UniProtKB/TrEMBL annotation, chain A:
<keyword id="KW-1133">Transmembrane helix</keyword>
<feature type="transmembrane region" description="Helical">
    <location>
        <begin position="73"/>
        <end position="93"/>
    </location>
</feature>
<keyword id="KW-0997">Cell inner membrane</keyword>
<keyword id="KW-0520">NAD</keyword>
<dbReference type="GO" id="GO:0050661">
    <property type="term" value="F:NADP binding"/>
</dbReference>
<comment type="function">
    <text>The transhydrogenation between NADH and NADP is coupled to respiration and ATP hydrolysis and functions as a proton pump across the membrane.</text>
</comment>
<feature type="transmembrane region" description="Helical">
    <location>
        <begin position="12"/>
        <end position="30"/>
    </location>
</feature>
<dbReference type="GO" id="GO:0008750">
    <property type="term" value="F:proton-translocating NAD(P)+ transhydrogenase activity"/>
</dbReference>
<protein>
    <recommendedName>
        <fullName>proton-translocating NAD(P)(+) transhydrogenase</fullName>
        <ecNumber>7.1.1.1</ecNumber>
    </recommendedName>
</protein>
Automatic annotation (TrEMBL), chain B:
<keyword id="KW-1003">Cell membrane</keyword>
<dbReference type="InterPro" id="IPR029035">
    <property type="entry name" value="DHS-like_NAD/FAD-binding_dom"/>
</dbReference>
<feature type="transmembrane region" description="Helical">
    <location>
        <begin position="165"/>
        <end position="183"/>
    </location>
</feature>
<dbReference type="GO" id="GO:0050661">
    <property type="term" value="F:NADP binding"/>
</dbReference>
<comment type="similarity">
    <text>Belongs to the PNT beta subunit family.</text>
</comment>
<dbReference type="GO" id="GO:0008750">
    <property type="term" value="F:proton-translocating NAD(P)+ transhydrogenase activity"/>
</dbReference>
<keyword id="KW-0812">Transmembrane</keyword>
<comment type="function">
    <text>The transhydrogenation between NADH and NADP is coupled to respiration and ATP hydrolysis and functions as a proton pump across the membrane.</text>
</comment>
<feature type="transmembrane region" description="Helical">
    <location>
        <begin position="91"/>
        <end position="110"/>
    </location>
</feature>
Amino acid sequence: MDTFIQFFNDESNLLLIYLLLFTIILGFEVISKVPTVLHTPLMSGANAISGVVIIGAILLIRQADPDDYLTLGLGFLGVILGMVNVAGGFAVTDRMLEMFKKKK
Amino acid sequence: MIIDFIINIAYLIGALAFVWGLRLLSSPDTARKGNIVAGVGMVIAIVAAIGQPIEGASNNYLWIIGAIVIGAIVGLVSAKKVQMTAMPQMVSIFNGLGGACAVVLAYAELVPYYSGIKELDMAGLIIILLALLIGGISFTGSMLAFAKLQGLVWDSTITLPRHDIVNMVLLLITLGMGGYLVASGVEGGLLMGSVFMVLALVYGFSFVAPIGGADMPVVISLLNSFTGLSAAVTGLIYGSQFMLVGGILVGASGTILTVLMCEAMNRSLINVLVGGFGGGGASAKGADGEQVAKEVTLNDAAIQLFYSQSAIIVPGYGLAVAQAQKVCKEVDELLEKNGVEVRYAIHPVAGRMPGHMNVLLAEADVPYPKLLDLEEANDALKNTDMVVIVGANDVVNPAAEDDPGSPIYGMPVLKVWEAKNVIVLKRSMRPGYAGIENPLFFHEKTRMLFGDAKDTLSNLASEIKSL
């Protein structure tokens, strides 16, 4: 319990909790009431955004020791995975939305 | 100093671009722009991550650039090449990769922690374990979802007896293992940490195993939200508010879609996850063997359609499997030429991912104002002459309305039997994916037209042309 109270009383943790809560609310507000026609593009676009993990992978590689091949390898793998998610996700969403667009 | 400022502003702009992009994505007119805005936000953030000053970092830029190039090529090429009918599979794979990335990153933190190079407090360790858990579930879960959608795996071959209990036990063991690791700190050791990761991966697989068919849209949206959460948790590891915001937004959108899908089936999420559909009482009702489905000839069907006032097409997963969306549009055009008003009724869970049918019909150039959602369709069906059901089954099952014993009782369905005539295009009399008998096929208004959806529709098109 004490650790928990300490964690909560820490200024930067508290800020993080605020950020977390407000982002959750913002997310629900921004996306609610999506028409059915956009369910797939929204999911696939959001999916591309979840590729933000790539930022972590880039930071991991940058901080790794040049001789630490395990970390470098893991980071390398991470960047590839994240980048496929990002590039593929945005491209596929754009392809779908292009089809929606042209029959206006 | 000034460079730090620029980097921080860049991340901030990136996060705002995500919010703005998602906002634009939820309206048809601005959706494409929204996707581009979000993409630009991502590029800004990636550049910031590469440029951000890190004290004493060796940078290893060659590794980063190499990986980015490989990832971008693989991603762009597969996005370009994928068939629209294979879209649910593609989305699942991309989704799983995000989860895999979170697992890799979390594991890369675990190694220096257990070898004593890096210290962590309890909160730090919990965060890493959470990233492993959520990322792991989303990775293997999405891969299995992909395999199922691709037809590589059949549900029955990978479910154990009482799979719900197996899942529960597996989850408890995994969580117990996590608790043990948190309690024992560095003493836990890398081996135990790795075991935890494997448990999370196995659980992800096992958790998706019993879910199939019509429940697929629910599980795909749920996995989408998991990947977002894993990205957010990974953001906590790196102290990146940007990753936190991006991940949470995805988590929220995935959750909203999951809830929408569950509502469309009138079932709780728990019910879906336990794999409640199918089997059981399903066969109890249709067992009297007296009922005979009436067939219609192609020629009759063509005449009926051609001389009707209005027709509504109800597409389902069968349309995607047969890749019949373009022929479907051809029939639509032929009928419209003769003054028939043709529209489409789209059930929210038709197909295998949220909005699946909309994407397919968009590919075939069907204008989206012709697509009716559940409520609009049920209003329109009452005054419709002809209903053509192409590969849909459970979403037009009247048992959902009037048979309390049916597993889908209470699910909102398209009331096609309220129209004047119903033609069902179907491969065979086999029940749908959920294994539930459909009384609609024996309904007095219903006529069956057996065969592959694509072949039947193109034959129908030539019949109509010859009239």
